[in-house]
Amino acid sequence: MARKKAAEPRSVRPDDIDPHYRWDRPLQAPGHTQVDFEERVDFRRLHDYRLARTRAALARSGLGALLCFDQHNIRYITSTVIGEWARDKLTRYALLTGNGDPYIWDFGSAAKHHRLHAPWLHHDHCRAGLLGLRGAVGGDSALFRDAAREIKALLDTEGVGSMPLGLDVVELGIEVRDGQQTLLEAREVKNIDELTLLNMAAAMVDGVYQDIAEALKPGVRESEIVALATGRLYEMGSDCVESINSISGERCNPHPHNFTDRLIRPGDQAFFDVIQSFMGYRTCYYRTFNVGMATRAQRDAYRKAREWMDGAIDLLKPGVTTDKIARSFPKAQEIGFASEMEAFGLNFCHGLGLGLHERQGADRTQGGNGFRGRDVLPGRRRNLRGAYRGRSDPHAQRSGSHLALSGAGVADRQSLLRVSTSPRIKLPIKLGFHAVTY
């Protein structure tokens, strides 16, 4: 029987891999609907850019193909998505060879939906698939065996069956190598549409913080603020509210990264982190409030945190490596931690995109060589300036979400939690640190 001829792969044009930056005007945060009278997000351009970036990374990797189970990688390559419930089920997977176009295996009805509504994919590349829902449908190895045979046949058909296969999450019974780093390399540089979506996601959180500021008063529970913010975000079009940290009073130190039913009290410090996505692009956006007043120690801590963050951001320019940026952060012992590993998470910066933690980033856990001392890429600093959030004790940030840059604490950590009898103070909104009067 004659072997089926592989579909001709779509060629990568120089325009496909061009980020199309427009630094002659501000980065926009337009309305969420598409209109005919102004250009907003060009989704077809975004599809082409992400696929072209993946092809380029794959060509440099020495891999014959990429097999992806990570939901962010699947979306980046195929521009398909189903419910957030699928995030940890390992039931959807995608394949891209160096010589072909993307394949997607999905729930049967979802695969049919892609054939109807995703014209950028070949019809016969949208396939029904099932790998057992992490064992929920039984331990029959036939599901895995059949999937492996189907994938191997496609690799052979497209001429890469003898080359290593890159995987991002799981392994099958063929030669595999780490494909996650290849995908992260592809996803590292955002084009103008991705930056616009990040900015739109951040604008949604701007609005939520106004709602939080109005609702934050004694007698309100941390969990009520989470419910308010979650509902508001979905009303504005969020496709996933991944997490909202809501932390107040004595719970502020050390940072527990969750919320409880604790009641807000007069004089409390309260900080929040909103992690949500719009069209898949995520925020990690902190803000700190004081209920009624801000103490001198809190204002001093905020000022110090801003000095650390602004100093690091000033280093962000082409040719500067991330280890130099990491060395500008305070040492763990300076901020009340015994080791750099303990300080990690409050003393690092990270990129954002389809995933919450993407390249580039910097931290001190490897002696100032966090994230392997990678070069800051050209154009990156402009993407970040005026678009970051930071955290400290108290937590502080500037509106936006392209890179997270954080510093933790000051020496007099306990003084940050004392209730002051000083007059009510409201610091400038542009600093992102507020005293909510009531």
What do these coordinates show?
The chain is of the alpha/beta class. It folds into two domains: 43-187, Creatinase/prolidase N-terminal domain (Creatine Amidinohydrolase, Chain A, domain 1), CATH 3.40.350; 192-436, Creatine Amidinohydrolase (Alpha-Beta Complex). The chain is 30% helix and 15% strand. The chain has eleven helices and 15 strands. The strands form three sheets. It has a six-stranded mixed beta sheet. Strands 7, 8, 9, 10 and 15 form a five-stranded mixed beta sheet that branches. Strands 12-11-14-13 form a four-stranded mixed beta sheet. A hairpin with a 2-residue loop joins strand 8 (269-278) and strand 9 (281-282). Helix 6 crosses helix 7. It is globular. The termini are far apart.
Number of domains: 2
The CATH topology name of the largest domain reads Creatine Amidinohydrolase
Number of strands: 15
Question: What portion of the residues fall into strands of 2 or more residues?
Answer: 15-25%
Biggest sheet descriptor? 6 strands, mixed
Biggest sheet: strand arrangement = 4-3-2-1-5-6
If classified by CATH, what would the architecture of the largest domain be?
A: Alpha-Beta Complex
- Tell me, briefly, the overall form: globular
Distance between the termini: 79 Å
Q: For the residues shown, what is the average pLDDT? A: 78
Class inferred from helices and paired strands: alpha/beta
